[in-house]
Predict the structure.
Amino acid sequence: MSDRAALMDLMAPIRGRVVAASALQVVYAVSALVPFVCVAELARELLAPGPPDGARVWTIAAVAIGGLLVRFLAFGAAGAIMHFADADLQLHLRRRMAAHLARVPLGWFTDRNSGQVKKAVQDDVREMHHLVAHALLDLLAAVVTPLAALAYLLTVDWRLTLVTLLPVPLFAVAFAVMMRGFGDQMSRWAEANERINAAVVEFVRGIAVIKTFGQTQRSYRRFAEAVDDFADFFGAWVRPMLRLSGLSMALISPPTMLLVVLAGGALFVSQGWLAAPDVLPFALVGVGLTAPFLTLDMGSMRLRRAAESAGKVAALLDSPVLPEPEEPVAPEGSRVEFRGVGFSYDGETQVLREIDLVMEPGMVTALVGPSGSGKSTLAKLLPRFHDVTEGAVLIGGQDVRAIGSDRLYRHVGFVFQEVQLLRAPVAANIALGRPGAGTEEIERAARAAQIHDRILALPRGYDSVIGEDAHLSGGEAQRVSIARALLADAPILVLDEATAFADPESESAIQDALSTLIAGRTLLVIAHRLSTITGADQILVLDGGAVGERGVHADLLAQDGPYARQWAAYARASERDWTHDEEVVR
Ligand code: ADP
């Protein structure tokens, strides 16, 4: 769908009101002209030879006042209707996005996509607001008023009207010359801008390193060069354009128009083609004829930007959702099985292939393997962050796709590295795991997760709002998410063990919290520290998305394969420094 079509489509719910407001705006735009026309008509009446017609003079005065009144009423009504319609549209769009986002796969929420959501919900919807609430009506008035003026002037004298319009073709030529190659230049402009941004980001991100190694001068130079390049390019592009732009704007500016009208009028009157008072309407109304050319440009830019934003919102609303089963089934027990599972993010690169795995209830299964071997991807298929592209994941004998997400999350809990806390009270964040949980249960979970005391130390205890008066460290946030998982009490748990040492300060607290959490559950753990999984019931060594080796620690060591080598490397590193293992050093 093109951006324009997307815009029309998204605005469909308020189409009726947009039409009504536009009609009112047309009334406004025409009535805005009425007082000027009346003044001109009054002058023609009074200056005409012979005594003025009193009744006609009064009628003109009454029409002028009426015009003024209608103008204000129509303007207010059109604006009000559009603003209400706009507020409804924004609410409607944000609700639609929220409803849609609730149905996309959890795995969709990568950093990039989350940024896109923020941009769509805030910036893009706001861009559409500018269009709906302001630009559309402005644009309409900018076009209708001069058209009405043109119609009126044609009734006065069509020949002088044509003369009045003389500057327009000249303007068109100058403008066309100015816009030559605009598209190319715009993309060059965007590129140059991007280079500056990149240079700034590089400079700021690396500031500590740059300073430490005394590279400030060099690094700064790169930034300065990017800015100089940009300035050169921009100057070369814009300078001649500004000259032309000044010229074209001057051509249709009110003084030029007045000059043309008066010169033309003088000629017409001296030749006896027109009575002198008849020049007055042109002087009063004609000078504004070209005004839309000044505003149209900006209005069309707004329209383009709004259409672009609409395209992004539409794309977001179009992102594939996770199909929910029509008649959800209930898993029997919590035995987990991966049957011939294959997965690809993009439909091309195979990230996982032929994964067979059985996890009996209460069993601990560890995933190890080099970075990028597919551990996280495999683990995330169980809580259905994505759907498999081949094979099936089963819980209690049922395909996870047939279970329905509500029930699935009662069976599978997860604690991953990227902790998600909501801007809500701490208690509510923990209770996400089980809506409706009582204060006592929440506190019990927090205590078991070793975070209760820390929460009590917050300004408002459990009522403190994350991000407002509750500022938690990474490790503390992780313990809140562990409390959440504890409260949810799902029999199956997927865990990224890196969680345990993301924050050295609270490492032992997190370890303790985790041991409480995993007790008695069926556990799938992404292992980083081999020492913690020596007791696992089964270890899967992933290699390029396939299971390279599997077994218990002792057997794997005896096989003397990749696991044994990884273990040896790990043991050597641990001797040097127990916090170092392959993943950390990476
Ligand atoms: P590991 O957890 O073992 O480090 P991952 O499961 O994170 O491995 O990654 C496996 C492969 O899938 C890598 O090649 C990675 O680049 C790719 N990958 C991971 N996440 C995504 C994603 N959201 N979109 C596309 N590719 C991804």
